[in-house]
Amino acid sequence: MIPSAFAYHRPKSVNEAVALLAELGEDARPLAGGHSLIPIMKLRLAAPSDLVDLAGIADLKGIREDGSDIVIGAMTTQHELIGSDLLAGKVPILRETALLIADPQVRYVGTIGGNAANGDPINDMPAVMLALDATYELAGKGGTRKVAARRYYRGTYDTAIEPGEILTAIRVPTPPSGHGHAYEKLKRKVGDYATAAAAVVLTISGGTVASCAIALTNVGETPLLAEEAAAIVTGSRLEAETVKKAMAAAEAITAPASDRRGTPQYRTKVAGVLVARALDRAKARAA
Ligand SMILES: Cc1cc2nc3c(=O)[nH]c(=O)nc-3n(C[C@H](O)[C@H](O)[C@H](O)COP(=O)(O)OP(=O)(O)OC[C@H]3O[C@@H](n4cnc5c(N)ncnc54)[C@H](O)[C@@H]3O)c2cc1C
């Protein structure tokens, strides 16, 4: 399949990119790794007039520490997340999740920014960003602003990003050392998107859960923060009965569609099971 005609632009700076997007109007789209955008253009489900390729903007690359945060440039690839010693040491759930995305070929070019900005609930990174309470840094012609990941997703492909804005970086508060984490994903085969998935980030003190965040992938129109499930386990020792209640609370907020990955009932149950598994693994990893 061949996409419809478009003009290609390759700005060298964020300012140049946002000026171009403002000038070209709403039919122009930013291009990152192209692994979500190009396939839908080939299927003619998207026909942007212009692609503004962000690949030439050095400022959008890299992973660095900034005080108590880790800042990840939007054009950092999933492959680079996997290779980062900083992330492996401080936010290992990002490495674990990136390893579960697609296959090496996709991960070499697919970016964290494209994955998070897009608003596709099937993508893996958004739920992890909810669990980590990350903040998205956006730039537009009018300047820059920050939006909490927990307020960014409004519906399928409907996000807080305004036309002409780009996601420049993701700011993750560094979880306390000794925290536990897990991203549990069920997929039909290696390289597939999630039937459902669950992210857990927690801390344990004296055998009791001191803090916990739980988020779900692909069981609703957006990634879901399972606040009640997290509240149920906080203060507990993750006894079987408590985990059962948390599973039920997580299942209660899901509203999955029926697709080739399963019926809504099946995917809801899978989400609950994955929450239990993720809690178990996060607990085992917590110091
Ligand atoms: C075979 C295959 C399997 C896959 N499996 C998985 C999987 O299991 N899990 C998963 O999470 N993903 C999966 N993906 C998607 C892959 O991770 C994508 O690369 C990713 O979702 C989008 O990133 P990208 O850099 O390719 O973005 P692009 O495709 O370039 O862009 C995606 C969308 O985001 C917008 N965009 C991109 N960057 C920015 C930015 N910085 N600011 C504002 N808007 C921006 C674009 O305009 C476009 O609308 C798969 C893809 C393929 C082809």
Describe the structure.
This protein is of the alpha+beta class and 287 residues long. It has three domains: 7-52, Uridine Diphospho-n-acetylenolpyruvylglucosamine Reductase, domain 2 (2-Layer Sandwich), CATH 3.30.43; 62-173, Uridine Diphospho-n-acetylenolpyruvylglucosamine Reductase, domain 3 (2-Layer Sandwich), CATH 3.30.465.10; 180-285, Enolase-like, domain 1 (2-Layer Sandwich). It is 36% helix and 26% strand. It is built from twelve helices and 14 strands. The chain has helices at residues 14-24, 37-42, 78-83, 85-90, 92-99, 104-109, 112-117, 125-132, 149-152, 227-233, 240-252, 264-285; strands at residues 7-9, 28-31, 50-53, 63-66, 69-73, 135-140, 143-148, 153-155, 158-159, 166-173, 180-186, 196-205, 208-217, 224-225. The strands form four sheets. A five-stranded antiparallel β-sheet has the order 4-5-10-6-7. It has a four-stranded antiparallel β-sheet with strand order 11-12-13-14. The chain has a three-stranded parallel β-sheet with strand order 1-3-2, covered by helices on one side. Helix 2 (37-42) links the parallel strand 2 and strand 3 (50-53). Helix 10 (227-233) runs antiparallel to helix 11 and helix 11 (240-252) packs across helix 12 (264-285). The protein starts with 6 loop residues before the first strand and ends with a helix. The mean pLDDT is 97.
Features of the shown structure:
alpha+beta; 12 helices; Uridine Diphospho-n-acetylenolpyruvylglucosamine Reductase, domain 2; four-stranded antiparallel beta sheet; 3 domains; 287 residues; Uridine Diphospho-n-acetylenolpyruvylglucosamine Reductase, domain 3; Enolase-like, domain 1; five-stranded antiparallel beta sheet; binds flavin-adenine dinucleotide
